[in-house]
Design a protein that fits this description.
The complex is a heterodimer of chains A (about 260) and B (about 200).
Chain A: H1 18-28, H2 45-63, H3 76-89, H4 91-100, H5 104-119, H6 128-131, H7 141-147, E1 155-158, E2 162-165, H8 166-178, H9 180-184, H10 187-207, H11 209-216, H12 222-238, H13 247-253
Antiparallel strand pairs in A: 1-2
Helix pairs in contact in A: 1-8, 3-10, 4-5, 7-8
Chain B: H1 6-23, H2 33-52, H3 57-71, H4 74-82, H5 91-112, E1 120-129, E2 132-140, E3 147-154, E4 161-167, E5 170-171, H6 172-186, H7 191-198
Antiparallel strand pairs in B: 1-2, 2-3, 3-4, 4-5
Classes of the chains: A mainly alpha (about 260), B alpha+beta (about 200).
Pfam families (chain A): MlaA (PF04333)
Keywords (chain A): Lipoprotein, Signal
Family (chain A): Belongs to the MlaA family.
Chain lengths: ~260, ~200
Amino acid sequence: MWHMLKKPFLLSRRGPATGLVVAVLASLTACAKPQPGEEFNDPYEKQNRAIHEVNVTLDQAVFGGGDVPKKKYLPDPLAKGFSNAAYNLSMPSAVLNNLLQLNINGAAKDTLRFALNTTFGVGGLMDPADVIGLYAEDADFGETLHVWGAPEGAFVVLPIGGPTTERDLAGSIVDIFIDPLGQVFKGRDFVAVEGVRIAGQVGNRQEYSDLIDSILYESADSYAQMRLTYLQYRHNQLGIEEDVSDPYEEFYAAP
Amino acid sequence: MPLRNPSRRTVLVTASAAAAALAMPGGAFALTTDQARALIDKLVGEINAVIASGKSEGAMIKDFEKIFAKYADVNFIALSTLGPAGRGANKAVLGDYVTAFRGYLSRKYGKRFREFIGGTIEVTNAKPVKSYYEVSSVARLRGQAPFDVRWQVSDKSGRNLFFNLIIEGVNMLSAERTEIGAMLDKRGGDIAALARDLRSAG
């Protein structure tokens, strides 16, 4: 249910790849290290908060929320359709990343899923794969970097893109260039692909409106709440075990 | 020498078990994995019944609130989210805060369960972790891939209750700690003012 928080919004996909991939990988070694004793690795908190403020203002202007009435751009079934189609378009990239992580089973599942939803699901607008229990195994280059042992780096908020980490940002940039769809669709076709992705983001924003609004407009510190939610969700997705403290033990041990 | 008299053996075993239980303070009613699982099974059963009841959304949220109040260790969640700020605070103020928090939490997570309407939750596993139990469940909602919901359960309060809920890694206890901490900061650390505002929040 949190998956719309995962990918930076709006990143255009273009140009030659190899040099950039190498540069991104090299820059990761310069990732900010966590400060001992800090709950989050967030050395850019001041800048992040400023960008977050702008993002929330933009979100409110476009989608409403808080004191501003909600705006709906798509009827619900269409929102779901675009959300499905955009997700389906991420499958070739997920297949590639699963392969890079040596997750052959995941790659096979996502391939089958992509074939099924693109054909019987009318270009991915519907999701017959889910109906028969063939669920996606999400994978992106940020995850691949994690599997390869790269450090997470600092928490970062991107203008429009929202929450990410240095590792996930590097991953998103690499994903732009290695996306198999970019090799197949050129020029105007690729613009259409991008259009579907953006419509999918609008669909997601609408579908998960309650959840997103509760973070952005109904919390005392939306930045802190968003950071916590993003990092916990992402760690769960990457299979990073959270530090298991036992608050309960202490509480009832007190006399 | 084997004991020939089963009734005598039963008596002996029962007596020694009782003695052992009495000898271990707090261990007498120790929760087991099965009991933790049974608790969440029951809770999830009630949630599923509400989801399937076909009542109005408002009525369902009310029912979810009741379930939450019945099965959660709200006292612990309230005081733990307050953290060190609660230490040394006036008892009456703290009591008032816990009451206000109870309503706030039930309303907030009652609403959250609204997203489960049209779906089901199924308990899949339970295991001991440190001093508590973690019960795993899978939520299957309409038009969504199934996702995991974990419940942390303990009997340390004297009753079997859950004290934390983790939806796809996102942890209720830490989210509320962040929220209550921020609210308290905004009110200059005034717990009474926090309690007052919690009554209309969530």
